[in-house]
Amino acid sequence: GLGGASAKVGSTALAVSDSVLSGYLRTAIQSTTRAASSEALTELTTSLALMSLASGSSARPVLLTLGRNWAFADTNFVQSVSELSAHPWSTAISLASVLAAPPTTVTITNRPESASRIALVTSMLAAEQDIVSFAPIARAPDILTSSSRLKLLSLLSNEWTSASWSTAGQAFLTQASKIVGSVKVDPSNEILAIADQTSLPVSVSNDLDQDVTVTLVVTSLSTRVTVDSKNSTQTVTVDEGAQRRILIPMSALSNGKAAIVVTLQSSTGVQIGVSRTINVNVQAGWETAGTLIFAALIVGLFAFGIVRTVRKRRKAAREPDAT
Fold first, then answer.
1. Number of C-beta neighbours around residue 116 at 10 A
2. Lower CB count within 10 Å: N or C terminus of the chain?
3. Residues of the chain with pLDDT under 50
4. Rounded to 5 degrees, what angle do the CA atoms 175, 166, 122 make?
């Protein structure tokens, strides 16, 4: 429109791109032949030159946008932008300068989206936030967050066809779920504890392509097994694509079944993955059994001595009466 690239809807400032000129630029960048690229670029520069003449001494900002696949044509991109910048009537400005120009008041036509699209967008937004919460455990969290954010922004473009967009959206959810589930406590078989002092083996696996640091929180659900407070929380680092085995000291107090819950947390206190319950079968060792038998013998001897002493005193008390 003649109003330039700055627009306003209510109190919201907008930057409006020129669809026709953007189309010329996209064609110039994406063309596979030099002739096609030059033809589109000529159309673009001619149109911009005419607009420059029409604007006179008042510079008019024009916003041009690129397609999602512009990065795959880096050579044409650099060449096209360089040719545009070489003209004396062309000057690059920042987006802030575009928004600072006097805006044109525009209206937005309401076109309600389908319930399925809204539901998928909601799921994608939530999945992206899950990655943001998960990322602090990674050595380079910005690699995870930036790539997922760029994919999300691309998927929110209105250039997708309905069929391909739904497939791409589901693929994004699958990938996001894979990322947040890549660090976990591995399932464990029942552990046999045969001594008072033993260790609980816990395996943590990392399927990411970078190291992660997590906090391991261990909680006993039974009084048969206890985990000392200094050992119940441990911070460990797991190498990329590796598994680490951690031994948690614990005390077995009595025979029977016990359950211990293991949870991973980030430095921000966010739970990573699902909690794992490890079952422990406590079989007291000979040390415990011997201690109990020895204690029982002492109690028995002590009780026998008391009974014997009481009987002697009673007998001594009865003998003078008999005499």
1. 11
2. C
3. 1-2, 286, 323
4. 70
